[in-house]
Structures are given as C-alpha cells and as structure tokens.
Amino acid sequence: MSSSTHSASLSPAPSTAAAAPSTRGQLNGILFVALFAAAVTRIAAVPAIAGLGLSPLIVGIVAGMIYGNALRDGMPESWAAGVNFSARKLLRIAVAFFGLRVSIQEIAQVGLPGLAESVLIVVSTLVIGTWAGMKLMKLDRDTALLTAAGSAICGAAAVLAFESTLQSKPHKSAMAVGSVVLFGTLSMFLYPVLFKAGWLHLDTVGAGLFFGGTIHEVAQVVGAASNVSPEATHIATIVKMTRVMLLVPVLLAVGMWVNRTPRGKSYGAASDDGQTAHTPRKLAIPWFALGFLACVGVNSLHVLPEVATQSVNTLDTFALTMAMTALGIETRLSQIRQAGPRALTTGLILYVWLIVGGLGITWAVQRLLG
Question: Which among 50, 97, 175, 178 is least surrounded, fewest beta carbons within 10 Å?
Fold first, then answer.
C-alpha cells in the first residue's frame, strides 16, 4: 500500500522532466531556423542573386530543402517542433503583417483600370490553374490550388498563405514555389525584351498594368518594370500590391469552397493525404487574413511613423524567410518527384495564360476603362 502510494507520488516527475527538454528543444529548433534564415538573408543580398529577382523567401526554401534532404539526420529530433512552429504559427503571423506593405491610397492611384486588371487576372488564373491542375494534370486539389495561387496573387507569399489555410503538406508548397521561381524569373528577363521589341503593343501605362498584373513576385515586378521606365515601375508596383490586397477575399472564398469540397479525388485528382474523399473538413477561419486587412487599414491611416513601418516590414520579411526555410527543411524530394512534372506543367499552362490572356485583359482594360 505504502509502496504504491510512494510510486504514485513520483509519477508526475517523468512528464515534468519530459516537458522541459521538449520546450528547450522547440526553442532550439526556432533558434536554428532563425540563424539559418539570417544566413539565407545574407546570401539573397549577394548582387548576383538579388539581380535575378530572387527574394530571401525563395532562397530560403531552396536552402532549406538542400539541408532537409542532405543533412537532416544531423539535426536533433527535439528541434523538429521548433521547425514546425516556424512553418505554421510564425507563418500565419508573418502573413498578417504583410498587410503593412499595402495602402488603400496607393491602390486608388491606379484607379479602376488597375483594380479591374488585378481582379480579372487573379480570378481567371485561380480558376484556370485549379481546373488544369486537377482535370488535366490529375494533381490533388491542394497542389493545384497552391500552384494557381502562386501565379495569380503574389508568388511565394500567396503560397504560404494558402498553405496555412489548406493545412497542406510541405512538399506541395515547395512545388508551387518552384513554379514561381522558374516562370517569375523568366518573366523578369522576357517581358522587357518583348516590350522593347514592340511585340506587346503597349504604352508605358499599359506596360505597368501588364507587368504588375501578370508577374509572380513583387521583386520580379520591380526588376522587370525598371527596364522600361520609372513611371511603368510605379504603376506596376501598385497593380502588384492590388493583387496582394485580393489575398483576403480570395482566402475567405477558398476557405468556404474547401469546406464544401472533398479533399480527395474530386475532378479526377489523386488523393495522397490519407483522408477519405467524402469527408469535408471543418472550415479553418484564416484569422491571419483578417489581420492582414487590419494591417492594411493601419498603413492606410498612417498611424505608424514611416521608420517604424519599414522596421516592421524588415522583421516581417525575416519571419517569412524563416517560415519558408522551415517548409524547405520539412520537404522531401521523394514526395516532389511523384507530382513534380505535372505541377510544373500546370505552372507552364498558367504562364502561357498570364502572357496571352493577361495581354488581352490589359488591352481590354485600357480601351474600356483607360
């Protein structure tokens, strides 16, 4: 009796002892990702890499994937919780603060043409990308949506936001980001050549609308438009930020659609998530999207000093880089091989649409609303 009482009194000790290493391991994992992201940020600042329009986010997921597949065994298992925290919770916070880069006043500068360009490009690209990915390429729903989102809205940042809402696996985000890297970088060099050759038949304003409406990453938009003129760069950047602003309503709409649509084999897509094809998931309210909207409001009211806004944006870019690096560490190349060519082909279909369809939309917007 006494011995059992004595052993019962000692029973909480192992769980307490286990909790401390677990918390310490998570903190070590977060610190490891932060140090990794700091190195990535320095690498991304190298002129040769910065000149390609590769943001720290993109460099982060590539470096993370290299580490995760080649050297992952060297990382203590207890650090995995910290890596997962960076790829999930930190990601949501960082996406919310991304709203400080957008203001309603800037969007108003391009007026109805800029808004119409952005809405038409985003909606059409999401619909075409999701349909082509699932119906033609037989991708699972999440991979198709992530690839479409990266092309339609704001590159890697949109992939991160959708990844959080869909709660999808890291390798799916990696495939979507790969599409952003390839075709966004190609746009940065191809678009100025096409414009200067006179093949686009656009004036400076039209070039700004087209570049900002169809190129994937913000850095790539600036890199491409700067080869045209300062005015085109200004218009292209604002149109791009208008697309970023559309992240909120699109996430809410996708969240509702995801709640009604089975995750598995809808539209002929193959399921690889281990879930039944007939069980709709509970709607995950993207609170970070509402936080994004709140940050847009704060930025539009000019409540914060410009120096403070710039500092927060710098920290936010670093947090997004941490999230991307963590996603890369969690990604396995063996999983990418299964759908990689099909995901890349979906990105190519979207790229052709962005050039041809985007050019048609730009011409129509300029003639009807310009």
Answer: 50
